[in-house]
Specification:
Length: 76
Amino acid sequence: MKATVTVMLKQGVLDPQGEAVRHALGALGFDGVEGVRQGKVIELDLAEGTTEDRVREMCEKLLANTVIESYRIEID
């Protein structure tokens, strides 16, 4: 069983890495990019029977800083 957790900075939180990527894309000639948000993807190999609530608990305790980040869980 696999879970994919996508962690992103919340709207309104400054994203200097995203801004650097946006600027670099413009410098390379990729016009039209008005904003970039950079995040992280975490793939978990889970034992059968692991619940989404358990993965949510992992996110809340370790995988995401919920003060400034939001997360999305997808379980396959």
